[in-house]
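ARCHIVE CARD
Drawer: 12
Card no.: 0347
Subject: one protein chain, sequence and derived structure
Cross-reference: see card 0346
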Amino acid sequence: MAPKILFIEDESALQKTIGDFLNEKGYKVISALDGEIGLKLAKKEKPDLILLDLILPKIPGLEVLKKIKEDEETKKIPVI
């Protein structure tokens, strides 16, 4: 099973370019265009890694990071 990466990024062109690259390298990429969706997907999908933008709509990246690290279900997921 391919490692899962959750990519939380609001620029769709960047989402597509990096997502396509990671897919080609054998990763399963899950995309979120804002912090709110990113948090929900982190809990639901339990990715192996989260790539997190800091400037996001709805919930800013640093707040997303704080919530991920406070939650028992997601706190051990590495975030870049």
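Annotation on reverse: The mean pLDDT is 97. Residues 12-24 form the longest helix (13 residues).
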